[in-house]
Specification:
single chain, 245 residues, alpha/beta, 9 helices, 9 strands, disordered C terminus
Length: 245
């Protein structure tokens, strides 16, 4: 009886420890983002507050800070979570190709347009469109994006009749759009349309306390993918110095 009681107590404690560990893990994660720093916790809190919002969002941060992860989290915790999430890197296309990619085109509108093609706005109808590197778009493209935000309509390349669309836009950039506005390189009216909610993602050098947590996260992920026993780093890893520059 003493042995049974002892094992029951041990099992109970193990469950409590597991539950506590899970709670701590959830505290340090939000969707696919990982971080325990105050800056990341502030971002998680903001994302919780805007989870039911339908307004446009501007995400700012350097390359590699995880702007698309934030955009996905916004979408999958929003009322549009059951609809499509489509990302596009605006800097990866020249203006003509970006125009066709976003708004589609009609047959015969240009050489090679052998049939009507839907653009990402039409494909993402009811869902979310993530415009990465919006700061790289031309002024004429910015006018077209502004029209979608203001009127909910767009004009496919070569078309004469606009189409109606219901898409939430999340934009991101690594550039200073206010400086671009001052130089006349970015439209002020578009800026204020997409910057209803602003989220600034800190670089990893600004949150060193998250480095060890990220190392453990990616190590566990790789072990799980490889079907191997989960390994851990030596505690000495905490004494590594990371240059803030």
């Amino acid at each position: 009886e003493e042995m049974v009681t002892f094992h029951e107590e041990i099992t109970k404690r193990e469950h409590q420890i597991h539950e506590l560990s899970s709670q701590v893990g959830e505290k340090y994660r939000y969707h696919s983002m990982v971080g325990k720093s105050k800056k990341m916790q502030a971002i998680y809190a903001l994302l919780e507050k805007i989870s039911t919002a339908e307004t446009s969002v501007m995400i700012q941060g350097e390359n590699g800070t995880g702007k698309e992860l934030v955009a996905k989290a916004i979408h999958f915790y929003s009322p549009r979570k059951d609809k499509v999430f489509l990302p596009i890197n605006c800097s990866a296309f020249n203006e003509n190709l970006l125009d066709s990619a976003l708004f589609g085109h009609v047959k015969g509108s240009f050489t090679g347009a052998v049939k009507d093609e839907k653009g990402l706005f039409e494909t993402a109808n009811g869902g979310t469109l993530f415009l990465d590197e919006i700061g790289d778009t031309s002024l004429s493209m910015q006018v077209k994006l502004l029209r979608v935000l203001q009127e909910g309509t767009f004009l496919p390349v070569g078309a004469t009749v606009p189409k109606k669309v219901d898409v939430r836009i999340i934009a991101a950039t690594n550039k200073n759009l206010k400086e671009m506005m001052a130089k006349g390189e970015f439209r002020e009216d578009l800026y204020y349309r997409i910057n209803v909610i602003n989220i600034n993602i800190p670089a990893l050098r600004e949150r060193n306390e998250d480095i060890s947590l990220l190392m453990e996260y990616f190590l566990k992920k790789r072990c799980d993918e490889a079907g191997k026993a989960v390994k851990t780093f030596s505690k000495k890893i905490n004494f590594l110095h990371f240059d803030s520059q």
